[in-house]
Amino acid sequence: MTCDTAAPRPFGDDLSPALSCDPRKRALFASDTYFLESYEQLGALTADPDAFLHRHAALLLKPDAVVSRQIPVTVDWLARNGLRIVAAERTRLTRTAVRSLWYYQWNLATPQRRRLADMFMDSCDAVVLLVRPEADEPGAAPASVVMTERKGPTDPLARVPGQLRYEIGRYSYLLNLVHTPDEPADVARELGIHFDTALRERVYTSALAGDDRSARARELAGQLHAEVPRRDLTFEPAAERLKEAVAEAEESPLPGAVRDELRAARRAARSPEGYRRLLEAVWHAGLPLDPWDVVIVGTHVLPMKRKGLAPVLDGAGVHDWERHTARLAAR
After folding, report:
1. Could you tell me the CA-to-CA distances from 83 to 51, 151, 187, 276 in Å, in that order?
2. How many helices and strands in the chain, by DSSP H and E?
3. What is the number of other CB atoms lying within 10 angstroms of the CB of residue 300?
4. For 248, how many CA atoms within 13 A lie in the half-sphere containing its CB?
5. Is there a smaller number of Cβ atoms within 10 Å at the N or the C end of the chain?
6. What is the DSSP letter of 106?
7. CA–CA separation, 89 vs 292, rounded Å?
8. Does this model's pTM top 0.90?
9. Phi then psi for 6, rounded to 5 degrees?
10. How far, in whole angstroms, is CA 262 from its chain's centroid?
11. Rounded mean pLDDT for each run of 10 residues along the chain, 331 residues in total
């Protein structure tokens, strides 16, 4: 994307260029309730909320990171990469929260992707970490922009060694375990989605204190591991379990046409097309199968992204921000 360098308008009409290099985002977020509540609360706690949001990044560890036991691995990765955890809390990714987080991007999501997301996002609590670099570098891109780049892309085939998503598991497009807000404005907005006023104040206060909260992150991981069984997120075992469950369901009282559809689909489940047919038959029959197995298989074989569309708002990379900052400094 191309970063805009137009002069900022007064806050309430448009955001500061320090919060986003996308002029459309600055205009939209100026009337976004989640952003406004969070930013105004932060402004009551620190004299320079823009600087705070520039220095901090947020990392959401989703339920797939919980069940695959990758939160401790992530905490270790952050430490190795010079990122200090300064706040850590649990959150619940309800259907409403999911649509709020990706409100400006989910015009690209297929109906199948939305359905699969609803099946696992609210299966247990997730964890939000607020992190900052151990050492501030003058003129560096915002921590959220750098963190998003180092996290790695959504496509598992495009990830490279050293990136967080490469290290913690390359399962599928949707089961990518972690999410990061793209820019400083997104950090404020997403904290406004995850937490109510009291909990958000605790997060901001903890981050302003700056103490290492990695022990808190590990404590939350331990709580969740005690509450939620571990799951294998690889395709082949899940596909076999799914077919076995369908075979068992075929023996239960079902209308003949439904039983025939399930049996034919199960026998055809040897290719992506066959598995798509199986999932469609399962959903048509309304079978209460293990949701994780359905999600694991579905994320491999069902379409995830509508073609020919662009998101309402897109991300910005480190190079975008370097150009943005240079142009602002040249005014």
Report:
1. 17, 12, 16, 41
2. 17, 4
3. 21
4. 10
5. C
6. G
7. 24
8. yes
9. -65, 150
10. 34
11. 47 82 96 97 98 98 98 98 98 98 96 96 98 89 96 92 94 95 98 98 98 98 98 97 96 93 95 96 95 97 94 93 88 79
